[in-house]
Amino acid sequence: MAVSGIIFIGFVLLHMYGNLKAFSGHDAYNEYAEHLRILGEPMLPREGALWIIRSVLIVSLVVHVASAAALWKRARRARRTQYVMKKNNASSLSSRTMRWGGLTLLLFIIWHLVNFTIGKVNVSGGATNDPYNLLVDTFDTWWMTLIYLAAMLTLAMHLHHGVWSSAQTLGLTNNTRARRNAKTLGWIVAVVIAGGFSLVPIFVLAGVITK
Amino acid sequence: MTDMPDTTLTSDPSHDAPADHGDDAAGYYTPGAPIADTKAPGGPIDERWQTRKFEARLVNPSNRRKLDVIIVGTGLAGGAAAATLGEAGYNVKSFCYQDSPRRAHSIAAQGGINAAKNYKEDGDSVHRLFYDTVKGGDYRSRESNVYRLAEVSTNIIDQCVAQGVPFAREYGGLLDNRSFGGVQVSRTFYARGQTGQQLLIGAYQAMERQVAAGTVEQFTRHEMLEVIIVEGKARGIIARDLVTGEIETHLADVVVLATGGYGNVFFLSTNAMGSNVTAAWRAHRKGAYMANPCYTQIHPTCIPVTGAHQSKLTLMSESLRNDGRIWVPKNKADCDKDPRDIPEEDRDYYLERIYPSFGNLVPRDIASRAAKNVCDDGRGVGPEVEGVRRGVYLDFSSAIERLGVDGIEEKYDNLFDMYARITGENPYETPMRIYPAVHYVMGGLWVDYDLQSSIPGLFVTGEANFSDHGANRLGASALMQGLADGYFVLPHTIRDYLADGPFEKVDESHPAVVEAKQAVQDRVTHFLSTKGTRSVDSYHRELGNIMWEYCGMERTEDGLKKAIDLIRTLKDDFWRNVKVLGTAESLNQSLERAGRVADFIELGELMCIDALNRRESCGGHFRGESQTEDGEALRHDDQFAYVAAWEFAGDDEPPVLHKEELVYTAIEMKQRSYK
Amino acid sequence: MKVTLKIWRQPDAASKGAMHTYELDGVSEDMSFLEMLDVLNEQLNGKGEDPVAFDSDCREGICGMCGLMINGEAHGPEVTTTCQLHMRSFKDGDEIVIEPWRADAFPVVKDLVVDRGALDRIIQAGGYISVNTGSAPEAHSVPVPRDDALRAFNVATCIGCGACVAACPNGSASLFMGAKITHLGELPQGQPERDTRVVDMVAQHDHEGFGGCTNIGECTAACPKEIPLDVISRLNWDLHQAMRHGH
Ligand SMILES: Cc1cc2nc3c(=O)[nH]c(=O)nc-3n(C[C@H](O)[C@H](O)[C@H](O)COP(=O)(O)OP(=O)(O)OC[C@H]3O[C@@H](n4cnc5c(N)ncnc54)[C@H](O)[C@@H]3O)c2cc1C
Ligand code: HEM
Ligand code: SF4
Ligand code: FES
Fold it and tell me: Cβ of C188: how many Cβ atoms within 10 Å?
């Protein structure tokens, strides 16, 4: 679970870097998208590297979701009679919403793929074969931006707990200082990633990034 | 607190006076034949244990599996024995009344465990530990047993360290020691204030390992209620499954009782709520002698009673007396004042006044009695409980001035916290209040050198037996005894008995088994069907009050006789008027307590008779009639240098007193003095 | 003072339970929480009602026998055991909800009493150092750095009360298990069995039906001995090492 989570983190960091290319304008962004497809050529066929990344992500996703489901199921079985009254003294909101938050992310990821990768849906009815234009069209629609921002908030929360949790799961937090560092890192990763992703939609909606 | 200057026996004033200290208990008992320990080999004291180990017969490893051993109790004494006998390959069944073996009351010991390792090169040795223990016990213990205890003490530390017990260490990585209870050498090993816990967890883990290996079967939430005697030998127990209420028969080749102390006869004590005498008492009623039952240790530094609701008392380590000064107001009128407003000249630092050379560090029994005296004098402090203030100040203000708050924090942090939590007062700002409480019993079932009781096949270890501490136990020596018995003594001596086994199988339909089971059943039925008006706890409290008043820190002939009458009346009322609700077939905590209180009542009576008989003061037993001119304890070795082993003679019969004479070959008897 | 108690009553494991309400007057703030329940029981006994069953033994915070869920908090509002909680932590007129530890691995025996045998079985699976009596080397033959000994001690203070399980949203016993693994793993004596210990204990833990740890941290907040979350990290570290070593 921790490993798959960290793979995701690595991926979203790259992904975010790519997205931020949108600030460099239409051509730079599309070039980057094209570059992803020809990465590794001629050692690998076209889209080869991309498919490697994709398969790693798909495997990770399966592992991640499967372990999440297993943990969830175990937790439900571990306490079938609930407390009449139960206080939360130490848990963060993020830690308590990992499961529903994760599910939300799953739904979002599906929509996201439908939107940009598999289905290529342009909600404003425009062309879908130009990645940059698809992006701008999408985020020009206020409710799409809202969905994406909500998803980023969910992701931030997921990472806030997830980063520290994975450090703990990997056995890297064996003393107070390491624990504090891991928790701080959780905040940083959450803010950087969710913040970084949010910039593009916000700037599109604000009219700074245009076709 | 023992290594005090001595005066030899010849200066004992009792020797100048004609020695007749009466027969106070005449009419309350029947004299019986003298007894002796026949198992300790003769010869030089330092060779006896080696000789015994060699002479004790061996059991063939392939036979061990066929031998069933029942061990009741999972404290240091029982847990260590279960682990060791399991490792040896015997078939062990272990019982405790708690929900896990790890919760036995050994867990509560704070201070530490003694061992004659002499790591400090400060002159310690097996012989010195032996000497201190016999002397600390006021020359009322059996020397062969004590010597052996000192001898195996060093193995205990090795064993515990190997198990992972996290004793305190020095910077060099070696074990740290401290001096405890005023002795002049540092021989106490400790794990902060939780030594008992760490030692018990070590024994518990060793035992759980054997549970996994299949040699030990553990029965938790099981209370032993009867011992089964077949043809004069202990052959099993009747236990009640406390969850289902089922009354079970467990048969074996040998039975070991490691059931701890009976301090709860006083209702309020530092013992656990469930600590009881039932196992020992049931064995006593079936023929095991009860030795020196009146020897009780009362610990001076406990948190005082706050009200009628009090369920138990909490001990605070005696190390506090190293820095705290004990006082009460000189004038009764000041007793309810804020102590900080009482000027220095109106305070009575009574220990420093009466015992100038030892001051606040006098032994436990002396400190306790002095506190009682000032409170009886009307100068106690704290809330009035039943019209009397029972508390004295333990004041750290001068220590705080000397060492600073940080210095005190470093030394006593957890104790101060505990005090604050229980009392709601901040001991850094206002003096602590303390009062003595029952803490430990030196008395217990009589055993020989092999730890076998007067019933063949019934062995008794740990606090449940009487063997090693005489009339007073030194700090940090009970843990030592529990582990010595469990790891190193019993496993050797029990094999001599088991070498005759496996014994002929006993059938559950044997009349002795049926009878024992029926007796337990009848008692349960009786309690549930009495439908009286008073709760079990109310009887227990009343018994405790009687015992504390008349058989506590100071005992007198009149008081004890009165107590015996009161207890007999109470007993009668208890059996006719107790109210126990619920059913026999489920968890029923009132029912459990009823059985325990019934046995405490009978024990209380015997304790008073024993105290009445012993018209001398020794160790924890102080008879008002036997004191020096300035109020100090006075022993009478010419008349009382014996173990009083009591035999049960029947419900309305006076008990029979067997005397085991105490002979000292390796040590000379002296009178204690602390002035 | 006067309090209203809402207490879980359940006659035995098989029966269904429910919350019952009792009013209790004359409570003194010097009483411990359990002494307050003693007073209630004394009154119930007087009225001919079955007293409330609850566990306790040492009543000084060390045996681990006591343990109640008090107003939704394991061992109540202070960082201590139930037996060391005093009524001065409550106010006159308070309503106090009292429930047993809830975990399927801790079945209710009666009222507030649960069966924590699962914790013993986790220890049986490997929570020890295998050394037979009498076979130990001289204690000073293996020096242990003071800091390691101290760290081992700090986590060896676990009293096995189960509050961590009770407080954990996942019903996991990882804090308890981690404390033992860290205690033994810190010491040189514990090294030979380090791999098998963690693998076997974790397997038993999962077998008992405890949940998996997701590092939420309610356990350590409820722990009366303040066992830190480090121990769970240590547990995981040891588990990965053991797996790398082929276990
Ligand atoms: C607060 C406190 C502090 C102490 N501090 C120290 C110290 O610093 N140093 C020191 O050396 N000593 C100390 N002592 C004394 C010492 O702890 C005990 O004397 C010793 O631990 C007793 O061990 P044990 O194995 O004999 O009995 P226990 O540990 O009391 O065990 C008794 C066992 O018997 C079982 N049992 C009892 N009755 C029955 C029954 N009827 N049926 C089934 N099972 C039964 C119980 O379940 C338990 O498992 C202290 C004692 C107290 C109370
Ligand atoms: C597909 C959608 C996702 C789902 C359903 C999901 C679900 C979960 C769940 C249930 C947990 C368990 C932790 C707990 O319960 O506290 C978890 C942990 C974690 N997740 Fe996700 N998650 C998803 C996507 C992501 C993404 C996109 C990332 C990273 C960008 C991520 C990173 C992590 C990390 C680092 C952990 C901690 C792992 C550990 O403690 O070992 N997850 N996830
Ligand atoms: S880790 Fe803490 S809460 Fe859990 S069992 Fe141990 S002492 Fe209790
Ligand atoms: S009763 Fe022992 S810890 Fe609370």
Answer: 13
* Nearest CB partner across the interface for A74, out of C211, C238, C239: C211
Residue B621: strand pairing partners: B618
CB atoms B423 and C30 under 8 Å: yes
Task: Starting from the CA of residue B99, give the closest ligand.
Answer: 1
By DSSP bridging, strand B432-441 and strand B392-395 are antiparallel
B337-368 pLDDT, tens digit each:
999 999 999 999 999 999 888 889 887 888 99
Picking from B419, B439, B459, the residue at the C-terminal end of a domain is: B439
**According to the model, what pLDDT value does residue B183 have?**
79
Cβ-based neighbours of B96, under 8 Å, separated by 6 or more: B72, B73, B74, B78, B103, B104, B218, B219, B220, B222
Judgement on whether residues B327 and B293 belong to the same structural domain of the protein: no
Residues of chain A with C-beta less than 8 angstroms from the C-beta of C172: 75, 78
Are residue B293 and residue B355 in the same domain, yes or no?
Answer: no
Helices and strands in chain B: count of H runs, count of E runs: 18, 24
Report the residue from B87, B273, B581 with minimal CB separation from C48. B581
Same domain, B285 and B419: no
For the entire predicted model, the pTM comes to 0.95
**Whole-angstrom distance, CA of residue B158 vs CA of residue B489:** 16
> How far is residue B118's CA from residue B95's CA, in Å, rounded to a whole number?
36
Half-sphere exposure of B49 (CA within 13 A, CB side): 20
Q: Is the pLDDT of residue A127 over 90?
A: no
Domain end residue (candidates: B439, B462, B477) = B439
- pLDDT tens-digit readout, B91-114: 999 999 999 999 999 999 988 999
Instruction: Indicate if B348 and B377 belong to the same structural domain.
Output: yes
Q: Domain total for chain B?
A: 3
Q: What is the CATH number of the domain that holds B310?
A: 3.90.700.10
Q: Does B121 touch chain C (CB under 8 A)?
A: no
Q: What would the two tokens of residue B248 be?
A: 């079970």
- Residue B35 in any domain: the answer is no
In this structure, the answer to whether residues B150 and B61 fall within a common structural domain is yes
Identify the CATH number of the domain in which residue B217 sits. 3.50.50.60
Q: Which chains touch C (3 or more CB pairs under 8 A)?
A: A, B
Structural domains for chain C: 3-110 (3.10.20.30), 116-244 (1.10.1060.10)
Query: Is B541 an annotated catalytic residue?
Result: no
Query: Out of B208, B537, B587, whose CB is closest to C123?
Result: B208
Reported residue count of chain C is 247
**Average pLDDT by consecutive 10-residue portion of chain B (675 residues)?**
41 46 90 96 96 97 96 98 98 98 96 94 96 94 97 98 96 91 86 93 98 98 98 98 98 98 97 98 98 96 91 90 93 93 95 89 87 93 89 94 89 86 92 96 98 98 97 94 98 97 94 98 97 96 96 96 98 98 95 98 98 96 92 92 98 96 94 72
Same domain, B110 and B230: yes
B502 touches B649 (CB < 8 A): no
Identify whether residues B305 and B294 lie together within a single domain: no
By three-state DSSP, how is residue C221 classified?
helix
Other CB atoms within a 10 A radius of the CB of residue C14 amount to 6
**Is the minimum distance from the CB of A101 to ligand 2 under 6 angstroms?**
no
Give ipTM to 2 decimals: 0.98
Interface touch C127/B87, C-beta < 8 Å? no
Among chain B residues, CA nearest to C144: B173
DSSP state at residue B425: -
User: Would the CA dihedral through B448, B450, B456, B461 be positive or negative?
Assistant: positive
Whether residue B595 sits in one domain with residue B617: yes
What range defines the domain where residue B570 resides? 514-634
Using a CB-CB cut-off of 8 Å, the residues of chain C touching B310 are 35
